[in-house]
Every structure is written in C-alpha cells, then in structure tokens.
Specification:
The chain has 467 residues and is α+β, with helices and mostly antiparallel strands. Helices cover 71% and strands 9% of the residues. It has helices spanning 2-72, 75-101, 106-128, 134-240, 242-260, 266-298, 308-318, 320-326, 343-359, 411-414, 433-443, and strands spanning 305-306, 329-332, 339-340, 368-377, 393-400, 447-452, 458-465.
C-alpha cells in the first residue's frame, strides 16, 4: 500500500514537472514570437517614415523641375520632370499599398493620392503653356503651394497614425512581455522548488539506500560469520568432541577386556580409568567453551557508555597472579573514557588478549605488553564492510607483546573457533579465546585483526566505532 502511494506521488510529481516544462516552453515561444513581431512592426514603422520622406523629396524635386522648365523651356528640365513624376507616383502607390496591408491611414492615403494628382495636373498645365503672364504664373504657383501644404499635412497625418499604431503596439508588447516574464518567473521558481524537493528526496533515498546497504553488508558479515561458526561447530562435533569420546570408548573396552581376563591387573584398570576421566574433562571443557561462545553471541548490552581504562584496570586485577608469576610489564598509554560498549564483553575481550600475550611469551624472557588507542577514519580500516561509511570514525586499540609471535598467513585461522597453532601439550586451552574476541568486536559493529612474525611478538588490533 505504501509502495503504491509512493508510485502515485512520483507519477503526480512527474506529470506536474512535465506540465511546468510544457508551460515554460510555450511561454518562451510566445515571448520569442512577440519579440519577433515587435521587430517586424518596428521595421514597418521605419518603412512608413522612409516612403513619406521620399514623397516629400520627390514632390519638391518635381516642382523645381517644372518651374525650371517654365522659365528656361529646357529639354533637360522637362526630362527630369517626367522622371520625378513617375518616381513620385510609384512611391505614392507603394505607400498606399503599405498602409492598406497594415490596416492604417487608408483614408489619408486616398486623400494623398488625389492631392498628388491635383498637384501634378497644375504643374502639367503650367508646362504646356508657351506664354503665360507673370500674374497667372504667380496665381498657379500659389494654388500649387496650397496643394503642397495639404500634401505635407496629409503625410503628417499618415505619420501620426503610424506613430499611434506603434505606441499602441509597444504598449501591448510591453504588457505581453511583462506577463510572459511573470509566467516564466513563476514557472522557473516552481521548477527550482521542484528541483530542490527532488534533490532532497533523492538525497534522502540515497542515504536510506546506503543505510540499507550497510545493514545488508552487516547482515552478510554476520551470516558469513555464522556459516563459519557452523562449519567450525561441525568440525568440533565430528573431531574435537569425538576424539575424547573415542578415547572413553576405547579405554572402556580395554577395561572390559581386563575385567574379563583370569588375572586382573588393577594398576592397568586404574590407568585406563584416569585416561577416561581426562578425556571426559577435555570434552567438558570443549562443551563449556561452546556454551561461552554461544552466550557471547546472544547476551550483550551496548546502550551505555563505559570507560575502557577502568575495564582494563579490572582485568589486570583479575590477572594479578598470572602477571606476577610471569613478571609481565604491562604499559597502558591511552584508552577511550567514553564509548558505547558492553562492559562484561569488553572485560572478556581484554582478558583474552592480555592472557594470550602472557601465555605465548618467549622462554626466559619477561613479557612486555603495550596497550594504546587512537582515532582513525573508516576508510583506513582493513575491513571492506566497515570502510564503506567514510564519515564514521573508529577507535583503533592495539595490544602489542614481545612474545613468540606467529606467521601472518595464519591470521584468519587463529580467529576461528577451536583453531590452534600449537599442540595442547605445549600451550593449554581449547583455542576459542580469539574467536570470542572476534565475536565481541562484531557485536559492537567493529572488527579485529593481527600483525606478527615468528619470534618477533604479535600486535592485536581492535576497531570499535566511536558511536
């Protein structure tokens, strides 16, 4: 149900984004089209001014050529007159077509056309008269000037109409542009808001995915550890536990044979019984260690902060006799005084590490054990599953000794359940101590590893998260 709601939300979110993009696109097209239209209209207004100026110019040149011919009767003046007349009529026609095409000043262009023909007719009449008194010439020129004034006023009216249309279009364009800019701003603001919301939601999903990934990695790590433990348990059940059982059975059969013989050797029977008891004690020790490991996996509390300095001091008190007997020198440089951890398991962790350092000392050499800590980044850890979260910080706690050491190729082996590098006759124990240390570190979302070489001591390195 939640998944369907999320899908529905994302569908609405996508539809809204597409609608905004479409609106932004359409508004942009409208804005560009309006800008283009404004440019085209500005060009149209320029054409009107250009044609009216040309009509004024050609009208003046036409009058000058006509007056020159009347005075000089020059053929050149007449030719210029004809040329200017044709050009003037052509520009009047173009101006009329231009105004008609853009739907303004239709009446004015019709009046202009009549006035131009009227002015040309007066000039034509003056040029056809071979002899005309000065009074009549002045009269005709006066009439012509009045017509020219009317032409200029009509052209002014056409320009005014042109300017009024330009101003109206500019106002409309300004309003349209402001509305378009407002819409673009609204669309842009909403789209930015959507981008920010999308960013934070994606960031939240990524962080949640990373958290799930870390949890999955941790679960995989725990499953891998559990599978390893199951394999070790199977090995213990099939080998370590079966070994004392076989001894008990073998010596039991030997006692039975001895008791069935005619002459019973009491010393032999007692020896067999002692061996059976030794095998039974060995089996009991293995079973108790298995139970201890099982409790480590299930019973721990990391809800309160503890002082590891106090924990180690308590462990040293518990190991006081072993420390005095081995004449061990234990140096504690620095340990975290506030860390979320289970006090009982931390005590067991350090007790196993310090006990091993004392146990595996060199013959005739007093053990020297150094314990210290430092803060390190997750990315520096030798565990891939812990190095994923680069923001996490870890306490790196080292327990170093000057004992017999071991070959580093056995580093993984020494942390497995009941795995030993030495025979029981040389060093006592079942080999479960370091596997318990590993499990304690895993319970605290940390890890443990070791560095060593034969004859040069060993350094066990514990990583615990600060949070």
């Amino acid at each position: 149900m939640i998944k369907d709601k999320k899908l529905s939300y994302y569908n609405y979110f996508l539809m809204l984004s597409l609608a905004l993009i479409a609106g932004y696109f359409i508004t942009s097209l409208f804005f560009l089209n309006r800008t283009w239209e404004s440019g085209r209209q500005a060009e149209q207004y320029g054409v009107t001014v250009e044609k009216t100026n040309a009509i004024i110019q050609y009208t003046s040149q036409l009058e000058s050529a006509a007056y020159s011919y009347v005075i000089t009767h020059s053929a050149g003046s007449k030719a210029i007159y004809q040329h200017k007349k044709e050009a003037l009529l052509e520009y009047v026609k173009r101006l009329g077509d231009h105004c008609s095409a853009h739907h303004f000043a239709d009446d004015e262009t019709e009046v202009l056309n009549n006035l131009i023909y009227q002015r040309i007719s007066v000039l034509d009449y003056m040029m056809t008269q071979n002899s005309m008194s000065k009074e009549i010439q002045m009269e005709q020129m006066s009439v012509g000037n009045e017509t020219t004034k009317k032409i200029l006023n009509t052209l002014k009216s056409i320009r005014n109409a042109n300017n009024e249309m330009r101003e109206s279009n500019q106002r409309d364009a300004g309003i349209a542009n402001r509305n378009a800019m407002l819409l673009l701003t609204v669309f842009g603001g909403v789209m930015m808001l959507i981008v920010f919301i999308s960013f934070f939601k994606m960031r939240k999903e990524i962080l949640r995915s990373e958290r799930f990934l870390k949890e999955i990695n941790q679960i995989n790590l725990e499953l891998s550890s559990m599978n390893e433990n199951l394999e070790n348990f199977a090995y213990v059940a099939s080998h370590d536990l079966n070994e004392p059982l076989r001894k008990i059975r073998t010596f039991g059969e030997m006692i039975e044979l001895e008791l069935n013989s005619e002459k019973i050797n009491q010393k032999t029977v007692v020896s067999h019984i002692h061996r059976m008891q030794s095998a039974a004690e060995r089996m009991q020790e293995l079973i108790e260690d298995l139970l201890s490991y099982s409790r480590i996996s299930r019973q721990f509390d990391i809800s309160e902060k503890i002082d590891l300095q106090d924990v180690v001091e308590t462990v040293l008190g518990d190991l006081e006799i072993a420390i005095k007997e081995s004449n061990a020198n234990i140096q504690i440089e620095s340990l975290p005084n506030s860390i979320l951890a289970d006090a009982i398991q931390m005590r067991q962790l350090f007790q196993n590490l310090i006990s091993n350092a004392i146990k595996f000392k060199k013959p005739e050499v007093d053990p020297v054990i150094t314990i210290k800590s430092e803060l390190v980044k997750a990315e520096t850890l030798p565990f891939d599953e812990l190095a994923i979260d680069h923001s996490q910080m870890y306490w790196k706690i080292t327990v170093a000794d000057n004992g017999i050491g071991f070959d580093e190729k056995y580093t993984d082996k020494i942390f497995a359940v009941f795995q030993r590098l030495h025979g029981r006759s040389t060093y006592e124990g079942t080999g479960i101590g370091l596997s318990i240390c590993k499990k304690i570190c895993e319970n605290h979302k940390g890890g443990i590893t070791a560095e060593s070489s034969e004859g040069n001591g060993a350094t066990f390195i514990v990583f615990l998260p600060i949070n």
